[in-house]
Structures are given as structure tokens and as C-alpha cells.
């Protein structure tokens, strides 16, 4: 048999195997190139890739938008998170309380997630609740604050002088009434304790006077009884003065909180109805308080 033919027959299987391996390698390169192009497309595209092709970190970085309107205007809107999420930075969101803006708050971009929200303005009842900002959605929040009530301030002052003044944001008057009432009550407590001590001393002196059988010491014992009785009356008078002071401060506190109400000019906004829900894991907020709606 011809030697060249034998060599060709021996090398033919190796050649065919090498050709098959080369084709397989070319197909794998083509597939890898297509996959890389697809990933680049998703990275550069304005549309979000499917969730199955995105990492948890990328999902946490999704942005949402918030619009806040309501009553009264210029009410401050505070927001914060309980804790940072992976991918957050101190500049993007803080763990402390920070001011988002004042009503009306125009379309503001925020990381998606659950936020603690507080809305407040002088003369109005503050509101606090949790709000869930969904990824890639615009949340429209309408908040109506209720004006503070003189009756509620009076009720607070009935509990303790100065509490109603704090509620009505008259802090100097509140501190003054609280300090005066606290001092008066402390004086009553201390003088009552001192009076009990003086009464014991008076009873002891009277007992010694009655038990005395020595006529020469009778005048001395009687003088001691009179002295102890005078001390009892002095301490009793001091205690009574503290009681009068406490009652006077209490009554003046009620008159002050009712007569000098600082928010007479505030107006009441008509109620609004809720069109959404608040994410708080607790009983829902009052229907008149918050209105939510979502828009893509």
C-alpha cells in the first residue's frame, strides 16, 4: 500500500477533530460577544433591564419622585430613614432628620424605600407617618394640618401649669409657670415634712411638761412648750403660703393660656379624602390628614 496514502488516512481523524474544536470555539466567542453587547445595551439604555438581570444593589439604587402639596403653605416637610441601605451615601440620604422643603414641594428625586415623614408649622398640629416611595414612580402627597385648639391648650394646662403654654408655643411663659408651680409644690412638700417634725417636738415638750412634778422646773417646761408651739405655727404658716402660691399659679396659668391665645388668626382648611395608603404597619392615619396618589 502506498505510504503517503497511509499517512493521510492516519492524520484525517485528527484533522477532523481539530476542525470541530475550532468551530466550537468560534461559536462560544460569538455567543460571548452577543451577551456583552446585550449588557452594554441595558447599561446605556434609558429603560430599566429586567429584574432577573439586575443585582440587589442596583435595585436599591432605584430612584423615585415625591411631590408634596396641601395646607398650610410654607409648612416644613422633614424626612429621614431609620437606617442607611446598601448603596446609600451620606449625600444621597442621611440617617438624621433633614428638611425636604416647604409646602408646596415640587417634584423631588429620592432613593426608593420607606421614609419617616413629619410635617409641621407654627400654630398647627404636626403630623408624623411612614411613607413608602416606590421605585420609578411619582408619589403625590397631600397633607392638611389642623390648627391648634385653645380648648386643647386649656386641657394641657389643667394637667400641669405651663403645659398649655408649651402647646401654644409660648415657651418663656411655659417655663415661668412650670418653674413657679414646681417651686411651690416643692415648698409644700418640704414645709409639710418640717411641720411633722415640729409637731413631734411639740408633743414631746408637752408630755415633759405634764409629766413634771418639780415645781421649780414648771416654768421652764411651759416656756419650752410655748416655743415649740410657736415653731409649729411658723412652719404651718409657711406651708399655707406655699399652698396659696401653688393655687394662684395654677389659676393664673389657666387664665393666661385662655386669654392670651396667639393663634386667633389661623384659618381651617376644608377636609380632604384619602386616595392612597400610608405604609406604617399601624392603624391608618386620619383620613382628613393625608392623601396619596401614584403616577408613573
What can be said about this structure in brief?
By secondary structure, the chain is of the alpha+beta class. It has 2 domains: 56-147 and 269-295, Immunoglobulin-like (Sandwich); 150-259. The chain has helices spanning 3-44, 56-60, 150-159, 163-167, 171-211, 218-259, and strands at 63-71, 76-80, 98-102, 105-111, 113-120, 127-133, 138-144, 290-295.
Q: So what's the overall shape? A: elongated
| Strand order in the sheet with the most strands | 4-1-7-8
Indicate the low-confidence ranges by residue numbers.
34-54, 90-95, 271-296
Question: Could you tell me how far the N terminus lies from the C terminus, measured between alpha carbons in angstroms?
Answer: 81 Å
Q: How does this structure look, described?
A:
Residues 1-20 form the signal peptide. Residues 147-270 form the DUF5683 domain. GO terms for molecular function: carboxypeptidase activity. This is Carboxypeptidase regulatory-like domain-containing protein. Keywords: Carboxypeptidase, Hydrolase, Protease, Signal. The protein is α+β, with helices and mostly antiparallel strands. It folds into two domains: 56-147 and 269-295, Carboxypeptidase-like, regulatory domain (Immunoglobulin-like); 150-259. Helices cover 49% and strands 18% of the residues. The chain is built from six helices and eight strands; from the N terminus they run ααβββββββααααβ. The strands form two sheets. The chain has a four-stranded mixed sheet, with no helix packed on it. It has a four-stranded antiparallel sheet with strand order 3-2-5-6, with no helix packed on it. A hairpin with a 6-residue loop joins strand 5 and strand 6 (127-133). Helix 3 (150-159) packs antiparallel against helix 6 and helix 5 runs antiparallel to helix 6 (218-259). The longest helix is centred in the N-terminal third of the chain and has 42 residues, at 3-44. The protein is elongated. The chain starts with a helix and ends with a strand. 16% of the residues are buried. The model is unreliable at 34-54, 90-95 and 271-296 (pLDDT under 50).
Amino acid at each position: 500500500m502506498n505510504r503517503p496514502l497511509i499517512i493521510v488516512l492516519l492524520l484525517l481523524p485528527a484533522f477532523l477533530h481539530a476542525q470541530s474544536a475550532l468551530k466550537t470555539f468560534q461559536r462560544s466567542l460569538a455567543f460571548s460577544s452577543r451577551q456583552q453587547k446585550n449588557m452594554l445595551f441595558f447599561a446605556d439604555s434609558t429603560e430599566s433591564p429586567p429584574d432577573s438581570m439586575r443585582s440587589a444593589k442596583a435595585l436599591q439604587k432605584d430612584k423615585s419622585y415625591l411631590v408634596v402639596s396641601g395646607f398650610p403653605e410654607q409648612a416644613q416637610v422633614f424626612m429621614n430613614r431609620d437606617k442607611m441601605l446598601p448603596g446609600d451615601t451620606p449625600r444621597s440620604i442621611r440617617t438624621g432628620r433633614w428638611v425636604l422643603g416647604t409646602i408646596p414641594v415640587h417634584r423631588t428625586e429620592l432613593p426608593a424605600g420607606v421614609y419617616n415623614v413629619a410635617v409641621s408649622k407654627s400654630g398647627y398640629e404636626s403630623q408624623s407617618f411612614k411613607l413608602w416611595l416606590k421605585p420609578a414612580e411619582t408619589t403625590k402627597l397631600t397633607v392638611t394640618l389642623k390648627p391648634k385648639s385653645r380648648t386643647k391648650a386649656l386641657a394641657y394646662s389643667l394637667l400641669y401649669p405651663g403645659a398649655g403654654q408649651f402647646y401654644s408655643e409660648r415657651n418663656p411663659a411655659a417655663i415661668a409657670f412650670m418653674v413657679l408651680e414646681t417651686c411651690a409644690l416643692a415648698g409644700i412638700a418640704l414645709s409639710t415634712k418640717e411641720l411633722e417634725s415640729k409637731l413631734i417636738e411639740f408633743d414631746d415638750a408637752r408630755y415633759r411638761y405634764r409629766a413634771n412634778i418639780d415645781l421649780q422646773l414648771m416654768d421652764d417646761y411651759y416656756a419650752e412648750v410655748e416655743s415649740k408651739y410657736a415653731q409649729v405655727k411658723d412652719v404651718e404658716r409657711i406651708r399655707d403660703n406655699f399652698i396659696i402660691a401653688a393655687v394662684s399659679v395654677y389659676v393664673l396659668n389657666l387664665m393666661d393660656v385662655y386669654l392670651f391665645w396667639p393663634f386667633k388668626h389661623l384659618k381651617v382648611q376644608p377636609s380632604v379624602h384619602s386616595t392612597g395608603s400610608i405604609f406604617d404597619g399601624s392603624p391608618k392615619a386620619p383620613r382628613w390628614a393625608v392623601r396619596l396618589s401614584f403616577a408613573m
